[in-house]
Design a protein that fits this description.
Elements: H1 2-8, H2 13-25, H3 32-36, H4 44-57, H5 62-72, H6 78-91, H7 97-106, H8 110-123, H9 129-135, H10 141-154, H11 160-169, H12 173-185, H13 191-200, H14 207-219, H15 226-243, H16 248-264
Helix pairs in contact: 1-2, 2-4, 4-5, 4-6, 5-6, 6-8, 7-8, 8-10, 9-10, 10-12, 11-12, 12-13, 12-14, 14-16, 15-16
Length: 269
């Protein structure tokens, strides 16, 4: 590892980027401080390697990796800003909530705004709810979808009417699925029936997105009614897999996770 650390500090962008990537691949958590030290490199390839490595290696050292990733939120490279936002959410670095919300509001790049919306849901900061509600009107469908998902994780029944209003007019099926998933998570009447109806009419272009929505419902903060509703959801997943061979494996994998999640939610008799 010594030679990789030397290359990391060498100032040669090609060698440094390659060394940082190799440190990430071998899981070198001891190198986090050295990697974070390259956060202000003039070379985008090095900074890109830094953001990937810190997202992978920095979870146990948030006091080092977190501030470095927040610094990269201001990078001139769109990809690096988006990856920094993603990494901060995965890390659960709560001090990043305010700067991430700033990027949701004002970043010119839709990918960065979408990553910021997703991260705000991961960070669990309810102060982000107003910004996420505003993001439901974003011009980009992915931003709207991630904002809806985050609101399902952070919101309360008070925002159900807002989500219902947006779901009623959302033209993009995948984004409408995220809105319905958020509504179901928050206990809104009729949300699951509408989501399953959308699933029954899905084509191969957006069925994977809807499957990801269902998968997320089973994986994070499962709705209170998931155990009781699991049979009808599983039936819809089986029908989808039969109807669209291209998503059959995906539907089967989601079914396995949904079955496991619903068993966890069962009450002992």
């Amino acid at each position: 590892m010594t030679s990789l650390l030397t290359a990391c500090r060498s100032g040669d962008p090609e060698h440094a980027a390659k060394a940082i990537d190799e440190l990430r691949q071998i899981g070198a958590e001891d190198a986090v401080r050295d990697i974070a030290g390259q956060v202000s490199s003039q070379h985008a390839a090095v900074r890109s390697a830094v953001v990937s490595a810190l997202g992978s290696l920095g979870r146990n050292q948030p006091e080092i990796a977190g501030p470095a990733l927040v610094h990269l939120l201001a990078d001139t490279d769109d990809y690096i800003r988006a990856e920094a936002a993603d990494a901060l959410g995965i890390m659960g670095y709560a001090p990043a909530a305010a700067p991430v919300a700033e990027h949701l509001r004002n970043d010119a790049n839709a990918v960065v705004r979408a990553a910021s919306a997703e991260t705000l849901g991961d960070l669990g900061d309810v102060d982000a709810v107003p910004d996420l509600v505003r993001a439901l009107a974003d011009s980009d469908q992915a931003v709207r979808g991630y904002a809806a998902n985050a609101l399902g994780l952070l919101g309360t029944t008070e925002i159900v009417p807002i989500l219902e209003r947006y779901a009623a007019v959302e033209a993009t099926p995948a984004t409408r699925g995220e809105l319905l998933g958020a509504l179901y998570r928050l206990g809104a009447d009729g949300a699951l029936a509408s989501l399953l109806q959308l699933l029954s009419s899905a084509d191969a272009s957006f069925a994977p997105n809807l499957l990801n929505t269902v998968d997320d419902l089973a994986s994070r903060r499962p709705p209170s009614g998931l155990t009781a509703d699991a049979p009808s959801i599983l039936a819809s997943l089986r029908d989808l897999g039969t109807r669209l061979a291209s998503v059959a494996a995906h539907a089967s994998a989601v079914s396995v996770r949904l079955s496991a999640a619903s068993r966890v939610g069962e009450q002992p008799s």
